[in-house]
Write a structure and sequence with these properties.
By secondary structure, the protein is an alpha+beta fold. It is built from eight helices and 15 strands. Bound molecules: D-MYO-inositol-1-phosphate and calcium ion. D-MYO-inositol-1-phosphate (IPD) binds next to strand 5, helix 3, helix 5 and strand 13.
């Protein structure tokens, strides 16, 4: 995809994410009126998630007709899509990442839209409608917050800042406990914000020195990974094997901390 087309796509995605964020924010401010369902343990969904994803899908379909979309609430439309070519663009949408925070009135949630292509992650946009911060970028695009360039923090060790550790109940709890113990014993400190996507944007912006989660679905991780890569950082290969459809372990940081971040997962179950 040529640079002009890439920039056009990034600008369009930013506009869609901001519009989606405005709709989500209206629901956030009126969340006592939302109907909420449970998808599983610690996994909620509300009419806000569904309405915001529907809006994003509508806008993507208008701007990029026929392209495949995978979304947290609406699933994968790949089967009906005109794009049967695996290398073609795939849009990956999380209408509200941090749903539990959103529904609890905690301002730690975001809209996340990513796009993959032949080379892996191509672009990502993460919009925080409470802070009015929009993170945009991709491996060949650089990374920005509200238009200002951002860079990962090149930490020399765990003592230099905070690592966000996400928790997935899809993996054995002992694995996350082992990671936490290793991090703390190495002089690190963990933070848990409840939005993996926003946390990855914070790694890109140098606010966290790293991110670790034993398993994330692609809608939670893709846009953030594109941003970290655009901000000069390192990420585990989340699209390897069947990562696109089944998710993967996600580790991200500056390049200098990458060996230590990888070592947190040493000997744990194969999850890439
Ligand atoms: C969750 C959040 C959380 C992460 C979970 C995700 P959701 O997404 O990103 O931080 O630890 O793995 O499932 O359910 O709020 O969209
Ligand atoms: Ca979500």
């Amino acid at each position: 995809m040529n640079p002009a087309e890439l920039s056009r796509r990034l600008a369009a995605t930013e506009q869609i994410a901001r519009e989606a964020g405005t709709l989500a924010r209206t629901w956030f401010d009126n969340r006592d009126r939302l109907s909420i369902e449970t998808k599983g343990p610690q996994d909620l969904v509300s009419e806000a998630d569904r309405a915001v994803e529907a809006l994003i899908r509508e806008r993507l379909a208008a701007a990029f007709p026929g392209e495949r979309v995978i979304g947290e609430e609406g699933g994968d439309d790949g089967a009906e899509s005109a794009w049967t070519d695996a290398a073609g663009p795939i849009w990956i949408v999380d209408p509200i990442d941090g749903t539990q925070c959103f529904l609890s009135g905690i301002p730690s949630w975001c809209v996340s839209i990513g796009m993959t292509g032949e080379t892996g992650m191509v672009l990502g946009v993460i919009h925080d409608a409470v802070m009015d911060e929009t993170f945009t970028g991709g491996p060949s695009l650089g990374a920005f917050c509200n238009g200002h360039p951002i860079r990962v923090h090149e930490a020399s060790g765990f003592g230099d800042g905070m690592v966000e550790v996400g928790v997935s109940l899809r993996r054995p709890i002992d694995e996350t406990l082992a990671v936490l113990e290793r991090l703390l014993r190495a002089g690190g400190i963990y933070h848990r914000s409840g939005s993996g996507a926003l946390s990855l944007a914070y790694v890109a912006a140098g606010r966290y020195i790293g991110y670790y989660e034993d398993h994330m679905n692609t809608w939670d991780s893709c846009a953030g990974v594109a941003l970290v890569q655009g901000a000069g950082g390192w990420c585990s290969d989340i699209l390897a094997g069947d990562g696109l459809t089944r998710g993967a372990r996600v580790i991200a940081s500056g390049r200098s901390l990458a060996p230590a971040m990888r070592a947190l997962a040493k000997g744990l179950g194969e999850n890439r």
